[in-house]
Amino acid sequence: MVILITYIDINPYTLREEILVSHGVDINTLKNVQLPLVKPSEIGYYSEVFGEWILNEDEEQEEKEEE
Question: Considering its fold, how many domains does the chain have in total?
Fold first, then answer.
């Protein structure tokens, strides 16, 4: 499972705050995972159990296949 690390940025066009993905952390190995700069909802889901954004399993499998 990969937890998404996010940050708040100001959109220069709308001047509104938005949450973006910085990178991910694999909870099994504690290694950083390079991810695209997108909104977390585009590649993951919010887990009420963990209180964190989690990378979708499908995305995780694609990352491993590329390695």
Answer: 1
